[in-house]
Each structure stands twice: as C-alpha cells, then as structure tokens.
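Annex B. Sample input.
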Amino acid sequence: MPNSPLPVLPSPAMLALPVALIYAAFAVAWIVYSDQVIGIWVRDPDRLTDVQTLKGIVFVVGTALMLWAMVRRGYARQAELQEVLLRREARLRIALRATGLGLWDYLVESREVEYDEEAARMLGRPPAAFREPAEVWLGRLHPDDREPFRQRFRDYLEGRSEQYASEFRLAMPNGEFRWFSSVGQIVDRDAQGLPLRLIGTYLDITGRRRSSGSNGVLSVEHTT
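Annex B, continued. Sample output.
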C-alpha cells in the first residue's frame, strides 16, 4: 500500500494564531458577560468585591487550562507527523542500503546537504554520514554540468518541473571526475507551500558512461 502524503506542517506563527484568537475571544466574552451577570445577582458592594476577585481567579485558571490543552494538541500533532516522517526515512534507508544507492538530504533554508554512509563512500570519503554547505558540493561539480544542474534543480523547486532528475560529474578527492545519476523530491513544505527539505539518491553511473563512450572518468586536469 503506498504511503499517503504528509499534510503540510504549520509554521510556529500559524500554529500560535488560532490560540491567540480563541484566547482573545474568550477573554472579551468573559469580561463583558460575567460583569453583566454579576451586576444582576450581586447588589452588596462588599460582596461584589469578593465576587470580582473570585471571577478573576476563575478566569486565570480557566484560560491557563485552555491554553495548555491547545498548545499540547498542537505539539502532539507535530510530534505525530515527525514520527511518521522518521519511520518512512528509516524504511527508505534500509531499501537504499540493499540497492547500493546513496542518500542525500537538502535543507533549503540553511543550504546544507547531508549524506548517508553510502553517499559518503561514493564521494570518496570515509563511510560515515556528514553534512556540508551546498556551495562546497557545487564546487565539486564539473564546470560543464553546473548550469544544466542549476536549471533543472531551480525548475523543480519553483514548480516548473514535476520531478527532479539529473546526471552530472563530481570531482573525487583523487582528482578524478565520476558520473552520477541523482533523483529527488520535496518532502517538507512551509505553510505557504514553499519547499523546506528535499531527499534524494545518488547512483554511480561511471561504468555505464564509460561503456557508452561518454568519458566515464576524467581527471581534473582534463577539464581546465
């Protein structure tokens, strides 16, 4: 059974807005109508002072409980969505490990890319997860592939393309360029629908490119 899409996770501002509006409406209604009721039933000025004090205590306790319940519900919903996402990512990592694909995780706001152990190995690094700025990754991209990659990636982020898929060359620590096929998709958006996070895979296709005569492995010197 395919995974159902995750609902958009509200931003902190959007999560707080209904809480603030409900609190304001409750406070206004309490002030207006409670005073009217007290004015009808309480005529003694001394007793009126005591009742007003009690009314204030009831208001503080009642609104505190209401805010606690609403905030708790909002955080519980966020925790539930996060747990669903973590379970899906765990299943994905197991499947990728079995197929030899490397996983990358791009955070749009911070412009950082995180790699799993297999992706790190493909990039010529020790097999351990690591994170780096996107600019560092772009610096390893073959000069001839940078603009085509940027265009495809931008088209996908801005909704002009339904999927992200690209083939490009990346420089290895030993100075060679290897071919990779990469696909990915947006997995998290903000309340306005703008992408926050993408997850995708790497596949080393150097052998396929070499067999097809497409310069499967090039040294850095050959590109200058």
